[in-house]
Amino acid sequence: MKKKKIIVPLILLLAVTALYLVFFHKDKTLKYIPENADVVILLDVKKFTGQYIYSLITHPSHWSGKKSKSEKSTSLQDSGIRIPDFLQVFHIKNSGYSEWYSVMELKDRSEFLTFLKSQKFIDKGNNRFQKDQLFIAVEGDRCIVGTSDKAFATIKKQLLSSSDHKTWNAGDFINGSLGSISFISGQKFQNFSIDLKSDEIEIKNDSDSQILDETNFQIQQRNHFLEMELDAENIKKYSRFFKKDISDSTQINRVTAIVDLEKVNDTIISYGYDDNFNEIEKKSIQQITEPNYVIGIESKAPEKTWEYFQHKKWINAQNQFTLIPFQPNMISEKGNGVVIRSIKNNIPLSPALKENYILIRNNALLISSRKTLGEKEKRIVSDIDYLLYRNKGTEYFVKVKAKKGKLPLILRW
User: Fold this and answer.
1) 332 falls in which pLDDT band (50, 70, 90)?
2) Which secondary-structure segment (H or E) carries 182?
3) pLDDT for position 20
4) What band does 7 get if pLDDT is binned at 50, 70 and 90?
5) Higher local confidence (pLDDT), 207 or 171
6) What local confidence, expressed as pLDDT, does residue 72 receive?
7) What are the DSSP calls for 254-291, one per residue?
8) Which of 10, 121, 344, 378, CA to CA, is 20 to 30 A from 337?
9) Is residue 400 one of the residues assigned to a domain?
10) Is 194 a member of any domain?
């Protein structure tokens, strides 16, 4: 009887300890972020696992779901990779905005190489592998993964060939959320939390962001493919992202825009020769997706804005705004600013809300025009309802809203 009294609490203690070690104890040391990283994305793997298990338990209809062989084969648990407590993805300063990297430890190198072969990665030699736009370099018991291989040599030198590189702590980047996006400037960090809800993903830099929700409902009711309003500060910030610096001399206060998509027939003219070597014209029709848009630019001094655009050679002799690649359009002075319209359809501008936001709604034409998307990517994109960006002062908020479904996102994607 005494043995039972001892064994039962001991088993409970061991179970609680095991549960803690599996789901709650986390190694917060981040060894694989280089010192010249300017953006870091973290995923709390144990928190994600716990959220997944809870969603699975509370949705018994998903228990009987059978995965195909191809879906089973993509499991990282069986890939030879050691799954970290915090998945670390980083961007290196002055590299292309689409270049992202991560370093992973391998628990079984040969198993990982077999996994790469099963996933149809191309062996490029010298332990380098590629599949589409995903590049992998195997270095001993670790591997570098990237959307490019340009920085592989630098990463190897900084993180894998040297033992005295700087280590970071997850607490510098993430605080209780499922994930985080952090922008690094010197010793300063600007952290954004990432939270996954039933049918939406929220990214924000302030846990108390109620101020950003005041007009969210009004914005979300708008139904164009794209609608936006940005003030002067946001315009300057995002024009630099596209490597187009907008000077203060333009006197621009605010930009509003509406974009819709339309499928149109495009005539392609080519030339060939008949049997007598006479040149003949050939016409073929293909369907393409084109935007119809209207952009309103509010300015303190419209004439200075116009002069600035002319100085930059953004307005041609036909009064077309050449900075926009979708032609033809027409730019004209109107009221306290200028208006740019696509020629085909006359879309009226919605009343300004005097807010900073970008709303992008899903559109079937957008998916059909992207021929490079695989079936899984198309399924995920088609499941999205809209993307909303809000900014007010120093507060930033991004929401990716999915369509209502029987299962939460964590089980759908």
Assistant:
1) very high
2) strand 179-185
3) 45
4) low
5) 171
6) 43
7) EEEEEEEEEEEEEEEEEEEE-TT--EEEEEEEEEEEEE
8) 344
9) yes
10) no
Q: How many CA atoms lie within 13 A of 67 on its CB side?
A: 11
Residue type, 159: L
* Structural domain harbouring 337: 204-260+293-412
- What is the DSSP code (8-state) at residue 224? S
CA distance 296 to 349: 8
Neighbours of 157 (CB within 10 A): 12
Contacts of 217 (CB under 8 A, 6+ apart): none
What kind and span of H or E run contains 135? Answer: strand 134-139
When comparing pLDDT for 20 and 29, which is higher?
29
Residues 163 and 69 in one domain: yes
Q: Look at the chain and report how many structural domains it folds into.
A: 2
Of 150, 185, 220, the domain-final residue: 185
Gap between the Cα atoms of 143 and 268, Å rounded: 47
* Residues forming beta bridges with residue 37, ordered by sequence position: 92
User: Using CA atoms in the order 252, 258, 264, 266, what is the torsion angle rounded to 10 degrees?
Assistant: 10
CB-based contact 296:349 (threshold 8 Å): yes
Structural domain contains residue 48: yes
Cite the beta strand spans of 274-355 per DSSP E.
279-299, 329-334, 337-342
Tell me how crowded residue 309 is: count the other CB atoms within 10 A of its CB: 19
Residue 374 is predicted with a pLDDT of: 66
pLDDT for res 209: 58
| Residue labelled with tokens 């003949």 | 280
Cα distances (Å, whole numbers) of residue 4 to 14, 15, 16, 257, 305: 15, 16, 18, 73, 85
The secondary structure of residue 40, as a DSSP letter, is E
Q: For residue 95, how far is the Cα from the chain centroid? A: 17
Q: Is residue 273 part of a domain?
A: no
